[in-house]
Specification:
Radius of gyration: 24 Å
Strand order of the largest sheet: 1-2-3-4-6-5
Strand content: 5-15%
Distance between the termini: 37 Å
Structural class: alpha/beta
Mean pLDDT: 86
Largest sheet: 6 strands, mixed
Length: 286
């Protein structure tokens, strides 16, 4: 698979997120919630073609769902968006399982937001949000502690890893966020493989709305160099190759049924003579 394709491979990025977020806790953000059981796909039934996808959708250990969104503004339009998100999750689960799960709406605000009401009410409903104000994190202190630990060859704690992926969000304004993103990317290069994958994939999602495209490509480039990414990429390529091979086998069977010569089938399908002969034998047995 070419390098460019790997950078755009959302399947691999989703699998990385799924593997690295398992059993993580939101405690580092000040939220007393069950640990993450699984990362769920966010390709929900669309309400509007212009509406963005949910940032994160998690299944927690108590089997509740947690929708996570990262915001740099406190506005009513966001509340409407959350209602749409919740409606789409409800629609998917009711269509597939004929039941509606308990859903949590978690909003992680960047350093640009000082305060937001946790409840949005109109006559027919109330939307209750669990909120995190990243500006409250001691960003520079966290950065210095993590830097010192990595320089000393020490392993980071789960809390430090969780905070590291949202550290850029603690800054106010896009320029400051970009500079902190750059710092976290550099720090990640000193982290061992599995933790590095967690930091980079988490940073990519958390910073998606604010990140400079060049920095996003830097993150993907770093991800593509990790052993975990390469293993997943190889697995995906093997699955593609297997599917293509099966397609060629089925086509060869059709050509054999039509009486085509084996050498011509070999040239058309790319299968070896041994493979074609085996398909022919299997057809005779059947």
């Amino acid at each position: 698979m070419t390098e460019g394709i790997a950078y755009q491979n959302k399947d691999i990025e989703f699998k990385l997120l799924s593997e690295t977020y398992k059993n993580r806790s939101f405690e580092a953000y000040g939220l007393n919630l069950p640990r993450i059981k699984a990362v769920l796909p966010t390709n929900l039934p669309a309400v509007s073609v212009n509406e963005k996808r949910i940032d994160n959708l998690f299944l927690l250990e108590d089997d509740t769902l947690a929708i996570v969104d990262y915001e740099s503004e406190n506005k009513v339009a966001n509340r409407i968006k959350y209602v749409n998100y919740i409606g789409r999750v409800m629609e998917r689960y009711y269509q597939e399982e004929r039941k509606i799960p308990d859903i949590r709406m978690i909003v992680i605000y960047t350093g640009d937001v000082i305060h937001a009401e946790p409840v949005f009410e109109i006559k027919c409903m109330s939307l209750r949000m669990e909120q995190v104000f990243v500006r409250d994190l001691p960003a520079e202190e966290i950065y210095q502690i993590v830097t010192a630990k990595l320089d000393n060859g020490e392993e980071l704690t789960e809390q430090e890893l969780m905070r590291l992926i949202i550290l850029p969000l603690a800054e106010k304004g896009n320029n400051a966020k970009q500079e902190r993103i750059k710092q976290v990317i550099e720090l990640s290069k000193k982290i061992e493989d599995n933790q590095q994958v967690f930091v980079l994939s988490g940073l990519l999602v958390a910073s998606d709305k604010f990140i400079n495209r060049a920095y996003a490509e830097d993150i993907r480039r770093c991800l593509s160099m990790t052993k975990v990414f390469q293993i997943f990429e190889e697995e995906k390529q093997e699955a593609v190759d297997k599917a293509e091979k099966e397609k060629d086998r089925k086509y060869a069977k059709v050509l054999l049924e039509e009486g085509m010569e084996l050498l011509k089938i070999k040239k058309i399908t790319g299968l070896s003579m041994e493979e074609i002969e085996q398909i022919q034998q299997d057809m005779l047995v059947l």
